[in-house]
């Protein structure tokens, strides 16, 4: 799902893209056995994208735009409870093209003149997943219908929505994100006894990491509200991308 600052009608988006983490193999033989919750899914709706402003009179041949690439929660909640760090791989023409962001908000700003594909690697906390998830996003600097002078106030926004699904999560992971607003638990078996929740603020605490008051939030695309996320997360026929989470 991509676009240029036009809001998306999430009520009609009955089949959002999902990235489903395959069920992990039996790890009972590991030195410290990890207790996993069968028949349980954790869903983390995310948005990743770019926002580009033309520099106007300050533009040059080598620097025509100021742009930001980011990964955020779909409702701008703090996704640092699941994601530990994000690595952005820029075009090799940039100095230090591999950029590592260790805490939310997961974003970086740069200036340039050309469009290219940005590789985005999500690294999760140790109780979530052992391997990173790789995403790709095209940096877009110019609007589709380009006519008249370029605006320095209205950015070109390209965002993609995805739901990362973790089946059979570790009990500790489940407990600490159970009541977190950035996480959706769409399916629980009847009679399931919930583990004792762990206070979110005491785990991986690095201060406030949501993007609700972000200086660019006015331009974020409105993919859904919290109640719509619950409806979307319950959809079962989605596009799925698989990758191995554990050895």
From TrEMBL:
Entry protein name: Yeats domain-containing protein 4
Origin: domain of life: Eukaryota
């Amino acid at each position: 799902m991509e676009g240029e600052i036009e809001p998306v009608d999430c009520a009609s988006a009955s089949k959002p893209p999902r990235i489903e983490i395959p069920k992990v193999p039996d790890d009972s033989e590991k030195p410290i056995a990890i207790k996993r919750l069968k028949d349980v899914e954790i869903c983390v709706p995310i948005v990743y994208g770019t926002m580009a402003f033309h520099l106007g009179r300050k533009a040059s041949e080598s620097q025509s735009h100021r742009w930001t690439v980011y990964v955020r929660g779909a409702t701008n909640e703090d996704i640092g409870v699941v994601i530990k760090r994000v690595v952005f791989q820029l075009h090799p023409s940039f100095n230090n093209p591999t950029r590592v962001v260790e805490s939310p908000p997961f974003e970086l700003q740069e200036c340039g003149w050309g469009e290219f594909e940005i590789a985005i690697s999500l690294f999760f906390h140790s109780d979530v997943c052992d391997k990173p998830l790789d995403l790709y996003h095209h940096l877009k600097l110019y609007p589709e219908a380009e006519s008249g002078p370029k605006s320095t106030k209205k950015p070109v926004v390209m965002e993609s929505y995805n739901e990362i699904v973790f089946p059979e999560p570790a009990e500790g992971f489940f407990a600490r994100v159970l009541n977190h607003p950035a996480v959706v638990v769409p399916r629980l078996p009847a009679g399931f006894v919930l583990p004792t929740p762990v206070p979110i603020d005491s785990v991986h605490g690095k201060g406030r990491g949501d993007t609700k008051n972000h200086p660019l939030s006015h331009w974020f695309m409105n993919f859904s509200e919290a109640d719509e996320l619950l409806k979307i997360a319950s959809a079962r026929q989605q596009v799925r991308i698989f990758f191995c989470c554990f050895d």
